[in-house]
């Protein structure tokens, strides 16, 4: 009788510990999610300070990146692809702009509002390059971003 009582007390303590763990785990998971999310703000200043979006190729080795802009700010503002990937840039312009990447000698034509153009190339040179808009003084106004090809 005594032994049985001791045993059930033991289970009760164990049950409490398990319950406490189950409460603690979702809380810490949520905390991580929130702090991770905080880095993805839309309010990003200079392109140089923007968080880099890392892209991985699909089964065919293609990385497709859709670019857009709001005013003189491209989205995404900083991207990374692995060396050797086939990169497909799909740029949709808001206003009259283009998307150029001189480091690879590629770019879209100057597009009108809501026009889309696709540019494809092989990212065969590692390094960090700048993409930008060549219309008027847009580049000087900050219409530029970072294109990183990782080794
Ligand atoms: Cu522009």
From TrEMBL:
Pfam families: Cupredoxin_1. InterPro entries: Cu-binding_ET, Cu_oxidase_CS, Cupredoxin, EfeO_Cupredoxin. One of its GO terms (molecular function) is metal ion binding. Residues 58-142 form the EfeO-type cupredoxin-like domain. Keywords: Copper, Metal-binding. PROSITE patterns: MULTICOPPER_OXIDASE1. SUPFAM superfamilies: Cupredoxins. Gene3D superfamilies: Cupredoxins - blue copper proteins (2.60.40.420). PANTHER family: AURACYANIN-B, COPPER-RESISTANT CUPROPROTEIN COPI. This is Plastocyanin.
């Amino acid at each position: 009788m005594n032994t049985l009582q001791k045993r059930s007390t033991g289970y009760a303590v164990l049950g409490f510990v398990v319950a406490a763990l189950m409460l603690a785990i979702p809380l810490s998971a949520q905390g991580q999610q929130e702090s991770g999310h905080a880095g993805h703000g839309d309010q990003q200043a200079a392109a140089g300070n923007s968080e880099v979006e890392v892209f991985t190729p699909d089964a065919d080795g293609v990385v497709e990146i859709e670019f857009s802009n709001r005013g003189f700010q491209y989205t995404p503002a900083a991207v990374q692809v692995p060396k050797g990937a086939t990169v497909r840039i799909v740029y949709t312009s808001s206003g009259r702009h283009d998307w150029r990447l001189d480091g690879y000698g590629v770019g879209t034509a100057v597009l009108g509002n809501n026009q889309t153009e696709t540019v494809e190339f092989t990212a065969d040179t590692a390094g960090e390059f700048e993409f930008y808009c060549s219309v008027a003084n847009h580049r000087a106004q900050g219409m530029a971003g970072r294109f990183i090809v990782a080794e």
